[in-house]
Model the fold of this input.
Amino acid sequence: MRSVLAYTSARLLLFAVAFGVLYLLGARGFLAIVLAFLISGLVSYVLLSKQRDAMSVHVADGLERMRGMGRRLESGASHEDDAQRPGAAPVAPTPLKDLDTEVAAEGDGSAENARQDAEEAPAEQADRPSAGSGVTASTRD
Done:
């Protein structure tokens, strides 16, 4: 982030200097802005090449990290989709020991509660009628 700020501030400084010089030479208004933009662009191309390279590396690394996150999200989504397809082999749940370490790392001491909740969830779902079963509250009697 530092390289992006350094390059941007250097570009703005070059623009301000070019505009100031043009203003002192008598250029006013839109002409001064356009000429200052062109002059500062040419000067920055020569003088700020190292900063521009550092900034581009930083930006490219950030984009690569974002692409990697997208790939991980897609992988997880396809894993969930595979688990929800009818006739698909059941996917093994995450081991409870991983849940214990996650909760213990947070430091709230509720690892046992999380384990009990994870074990009770399938039992509660088995007691409920499924959405397509056709059983309604009026026909349960």
Summary: Helices lie at 2-24, 29-47, 49-84, 96-106, 111-127. The chain has two domains: 1-92, 93-128.
